[in-house]
Amino acid sequence: MLSPETIEIIKRITPVVAANAEAITRRFYPRMFAGDPEVKAFFNQAHQHSGGQQRALAGAICAYFSHIDDPAVLGPAVELIAQKHCSLGIRPDQYPIVGKHLLGAIQDVMGDAATDEILGAVAEAYGFLADVCIRREEEIYRQQREAVGGWNGYRSFIVDRKVPESDLVTSFYLRPADGGPLPAFEAGQYVTVKVDLPETPTSPRNYSLSDRPGLDHYRISVKREPGLAAGAPDGLISNHLHDVVLAGEELQIGPPCGEFTIPTATAADRPIVLLAGGIGVTPLLAMAKDLVHRGGHAPLYFLQAARNGRVQAFNDEIRALEISSDAVTTHVMFDAPLADDLTTGRCDSTGFIDADFLRRWAPIDDASFCFCGPKPFMQSVYAILKELSVDDDRIRFEFFGPRQEILAAALVPAQGLRI
After folding, report:
1. CA-based nearest residue to 234, from 45, 375, 30
2. Domains detected in the chain
3. Which pLDDT score, from 0 to 100, does residue 401 have?
4. CB 130: neighbour CB atoms within 10 A?
5. Sheet holding 368-372, edge to edge
6. 95: annotated active-site residue
7. 104 Cα distance to chain centroid
8. Is 137 noted as a catalytic residue in this protein?
9. From the candidates 22, 29, 126, 137, which is the catalytic residue?
10. What are phi and psi of 382, to 5 degrees?
11. Pick from 255, 280, 277, 400: which is nearest to 331 by CA?
12. In the sheet where 218-223 sits, what is the strand order?
């Protein structure tokens, strides 16, 4: 446990750290990459370029310091971090590297205000949190290793099939190259794809498993991201998978990870509403197919929001959910429909999700809500749910970046936003 003196110091400096948190994290990453360049391979440089990684770390530091006297509150955040770390193969001996450069960045930004007493307290607080994460990660690694068909690190998979789902999305059906069994996973989890591009080193990428557990393959569905705008390394891996990787070739895959899974209460008798925007459909489709496969579930509502029929993925699979179970209600909404989308009935409505629609369509007072998609979509959905007085214990979402960017959306009026 942390000493009372450390808790008091951290509480005292929290406002100052919060005011300088992003400056600290923006100093931290270049400092760490220069001093210990081997860790750079774990970090998505597109997120570095956009500032998302820096803002996410700043938010995490502020959340930890704000709850320094009740760290149990951070249990969900620790689980998210531990799952992500295990997807990348982070080791215990890498934590001191982060701690060293975090303290150095604080000292660089705060100057003489970062006294030995303050730096000592921050070091103790960081060490405490690191130990919590390391213990949880050791447990996850053990579970992965001991599962039937399980593994740690990377395993060779054959691309059994490569199936276009829309103008932007392609699915990859993956089978173990060794012919061995696949470990079970929870719908909503992701796997890690490691691709070595000699001309441009890249970090591993996480892709949600887009089909249900219990099959003889894994499926990931990858959206082609835009090219290298303004020097940002966006799209390197997605374009490589789309353009270069063919059926029959091998990919290096990490074991399933992630905490964005079906709420436990939902699996019994509470209705569930799944709200998917764009490529955010992938983990939610896996959840929906898993719930239908299990059978005997309370009402399931699945909404997919997309631009139009050219970019919408999985139309047939989503329609099949409703056909396969009387408990399932689906709805497809396009915000920029094409002419044939309307004449063929590919979508059920046009426009954007709003409070009036959800109030009419879903059991607002009883359901659990899971949503995933681009940031503007998620900000809008979260604000709508809060407008409808849905408690946070009935809301789950998956988002890379500072969760505050989603939660803060409830402070402004919800509005339709393009995905």
Report:
1. 45
2. 4-146 (1.10.490.10), 155-253 (2.40.30.10), 272-411 (3.40.50.80)
3. 56
4. 16
5. 349-350, 328-334, 300-306, 272-277, 368-372, 395-397
6. yes
7. 29
8. yes
9. 137
10. -60, -45
11. 277
12. 205-208, 190-194, 250-253, 155-164, 169-176, 218-223
Sign of CA dihedral 366, 384, 418, 279: negative
Question: What distance in Å separates the CA atoms of residue 123 and residue 198, rounded to the nearest whole number?
Answer: 38
Separation between Cα atoms, residue 284 and residue 273, nearest integer Å: 10
* Tens digits of residue pLDDT in 159-180: 999 999 999 999 999 999 999 9
Look up residue 55 and give its two tokens.
């803002």
Residue 190 phi, psi (nearest 5):
-130, 165
Secondary structure of residue 246 in the 3-state scheme: coil
Residue ranges of alpha helices (H) inside 67-94 are: 75-88
| Structure tokens given for 128 | 């405490």
Q: How far apart are the first and last CA of the chain?
A: 45
Better-scored residue on pLDDT, 320 or 54:
320
Which one is catalytic: 22, 29, 64, 95? 95
71 residue type, one letter: P
Amino acid of residue 78:
V
Kindly give, in sequence order, each residue whose CB lies less than 8 Å from that of residue 288, ignoring residues fewer than 6 positions away.
274, 300, 302, 318, 321, 328
Which tokens is 275 given? Answer: 């709200």
Please say whether the beta carbons of 261 and 176 come within 8 A: no
